[in-house]
Amino acid sequence: MEQSFDPERLRPATLVCAPDPRNIGLVKVDLTSGTVENLNFDDHHEAIAELTLNASVPTDIIQQFETTKNLYLYAWFIYRFYNVAEQLSLAFLEFALGERLKTDIGAGKIPSNSKRPTLRPLLRYAVDQGIIRNEGFEAWRNRGIINSRARVSMEKLHEMTENNLEDISWDESQIEITEEDLDWDFAGMLVNVLPRQRNDYAHGSTVLHNQVLSTIRIVCESINQLYPRSEP
């Protein structure tokens, strides 16, 4: 007989490795076959394990990121760790920006209302200088794929109507992404969104959800742009 516990209180020692009940019932969908399966711990681990920082990133920052990854991993057992992981990732993004832009900060190139620039001015400067760019984010690249497929679908539908066809087919692997498909300033949007999230946590927040992996991925991709791979 399974023992029950209150997931909002200290975990009983005998149930330390029991998954948080709020993680039970999460599913994954195979978009090819349409099959639906329950998510398990291996799936959860795989999702966070694939996020890695470049070897050129300073060790202090890598260690912070690994701590974030472990918090996300253990959120399988303690649901509230999801948002702690997101909060930490945003905090050390600010630290990483400060380290990378230390020379520019010292030269007074980054406007700030405080002695040390915070996340928003640091991120704004990195984007304006082209250090952090749209092309460095998976979400921006995926937006191009989604838009290009939608555009071609509409073109084919129009072609069917114009030529009175009953059906039409095309090879999606041959679809080319145009500049119009990619017309989305993702990096510019992050300048406003990430500091707001960071401030919400810093001032105390009761937010509770498990949709934090996308934020952690964005932080990972941002830092990898700050410290790109060394060319061989």
Strand and helix map with partners:
Layout: E1 27-29, E2 36-38, H1 41-49, H2 59-74, H3 81-100, H4 102-106, H5 119-128, H6 138-163, H7 186-202, H8 213-226
Antiparallel strand pairs: 1-2
Helix pairs in contact: 2-3, 3-5, 3-8, 5-7
Q: How many strand segments?
A: 2
Overall mean pLDDT:
88
Main beta sheet strand tally, sense and closure:
2 strands, antiparallel
List the total number of helices. 8
Widest sheet, order of strands: 1-2
Computed CA radius of gyration, to the nearest angstrom: 22 Å
Helix content, binned percent: 40-55%
The poorly predicted ranges are: none
Strand content: under 5%
Fill in the keyword field for this structure.
232 residues, 50% helix, 8 helices, flat, mainly alpha, two-stranded antiparallel ribbon, 3% strand
Q: Could you describe the 3D structure shown?
A:
The chain is mainly α. The protein has a domain at 13-129 and 185-226. The protein has eight helices and two strands, in the order ββαααααααα. The termini are far apart. The mean pLDDT is 88.
